[in-house]
Each structure stands twice: as structure tokens, then as C-alpha cells.
Write a structure and sequence with these properties.
With 248 residues, the chain is of the alpha+beta class. Helix content is 27%, strand content 33%. The chain starts with 6 loop residues before the first helix and ends with a helix.
């Protein structure tokens, strides 16, 4: 029998044992990060105990974007915001982060430091951030359209899956004989249906993806006044959800 005289280590050991018991008793979906109040407490306590030695802090220095470019390269916010991430084989909760969608990198601070690092994208399995769920996808050219490797926002998953590759690109314009640079959104939408991906770039490609229910989907969008041109994300999402209802 091993006796531990360090109270902190005893607590950590107890929490780890609690997390093992919880995981044994509860089934967990393979593609969802494990999450429960007890388990989160155990994981966070353990992460705090190992601090900067956690695998999470394995990355490279993040170089601040050029201030001369108008806008920013981040998804939805320029403020470090808490999210959950599965990285390099471990799950980490309530981690302040940013998502640079120009370079496709998750950005965090080094442990207890105001020093930003970029996590290695190939080690990011998935993360939840600002009510969005992102998954790392491998390059895929066998199932329909070419899908490049990277992090994708999973908008919907049923019989049909809707993915978005969130992107910003630097656009250049000439204004009064001077170069003007700015970040512009350049999202790419994909629908996975019957194990094949299709890129949705316009209304025609949307109806083509749901060709066997094309008339019904068209009427649904018209009835609810959803226009692809003004809100493509909503049009694709609502079409996929309705298409699955028709097939159920």
C-alpha cells in the first residue's frame, strides 16, 4: 500500500480516480469531447497541477498580424474567449483562445503568461468555441469534391452533414494611388450526403446536392423567405435539416 502525505497530490489522485469511474459508467460518443462537471473538475485540477508541462502548451510563437491591414484574421472575436479543445491526445476545458482563420490556427497564451502561441493544427482533433464545433478533417479526394486538410465548422450533423471552412483572405485595392489591404471573409460550404461531399457555391449547386428532393427544398426556402444570395449559410443549413426530415 502506498501512502501519500501530500494533500494536493491526494486530491488529484482522488479526482483522477473519480474521472475513471465516471468514464467507466457513462457511454461516450467517439466524436464528442468528454464533458461532465465532475470530470471537468478533475481534468482542470490535473492540468493546473502540471501547469506549463501540459501537452496543450506545445506550439510555436504566434506572430501578430500586420496592423496596416484593416480588420483582423480571427473568427468572430479578437478577445481571448473560453473554449474546450482536444489536442495532442488530451482534453482541455475553459481555455481562453482565438481562432485565426487566415492561417487556420488556434491561438492561446502560454501558461500564466501574456505570450501567444499557435497550436499545431495537425494535433488539434476538435474544439468548441463561441457555440461552434470545429473538427480537423484529413484531405479527401475520394468522396466527391476535393476536401483540403484543416479545421472545419460542423454546422449540422444528421443523415446529412454540413461543414464550413471558415476563411479570411487579404484583399488589396488601389485607393487614391495607394494600396489598401483588408481582411475579407471567404467561407466555403460543403454538404456530405450518402458518403460524398459536394461544395455549395450557389443556389444551383444547393439544389443539385438535394436533387431527388429539389422541388420540395425549393418550395421550403421560398415559403420561409430564405434566400441563398443574402444568407447562404442559413439556406444551406435549413435545406439540409428539411431534407433529412423528408427522408425520415
Amino acid at each position: 500500500m502506498i501512502v501519500c502525505n501530500n494533500p494536493a497530490l491526494s486530491v488529484i489522485a482522488f479526482c483522477c480516480l473519480l474521472s475513471v469511474n465516471y468514464c467507466t459508467a457513462q457511454p461516450v460518443a467517439k466524436d464528442e469531447p468528454v464533458s461532465s462537471p465532475d470530470l471537468n473538475f478533475a481534468v482542470n485540477l490535473y492540468s493546473a497541477s502540471i501547469g506549463e508541462n501540459a501537452h496543450l502548451y506545445n506550439g510555436r510563437e504566434y506572430f501578430t498580424y500586420d496592423k496596416r491591414i484593416r480588420g483582423n484574421p480571427f473568427f468572430e472575436t479578437t478577445t481571448l474567449t473560453a473554449g474546450n479543445i482536444s489536442y495532442d491526445g488530451g482534453d482541455y476545458y475553459n481555455i481562453p483562445m482565438l481562432y485565426d482563420i487566415t492561417s487556420d490556427e488556434v491561438v492561446i497564451n502560454l501558461y500564466n503568461q501574456n505570450f501567444k502561441i499557435s497550436l499545431l493544427t495537425e494535433k488539434v482533433e476538435r474544439f468548441t468555441f463561441l457555440n461552434h464545433s470545429f473538427y480537423r478533417m484529413a484531405k479527401d479526394s475520394l468522396h466527391g469534391v476535393l476536401l483540403s486538410a484543416g479545421l472545419y465548422d460542423q454546422l449540422y450533423r444528421g443523415k446529412t452533414t454540413v461543414l464550413v471552412k471558415r476563411r479570411k483572405v487579404v484583399s488589396e485595392k488601389i485607393i487614391y494611388n495607394a494600396n489598401d489591404f483588408s481582411y475579407q471573409n471567404d467561407d466555403h460550404f460543403y454538404v456530405k450526403l450518402d458518403s460524398k461531399y459536394a461544395e455549395i457555391t450557389n443556389k444551383a449547386s444547393l439544389f443539385k446536392a438535394f436533387r431527388n428532393k429539389k422541388k420540395e427544398v425549393r418550395k421550403y426556402l421560398k415559403r420561409h423567405r430564405i434566400k441563398f444570395k443574402t444568407d447562404p449559410e442559413k439556406a444551406i443549413l435549413q435545406s439540409a435539416e428539411y431534407y433529412d426530415q423528408l427522408r425520415s
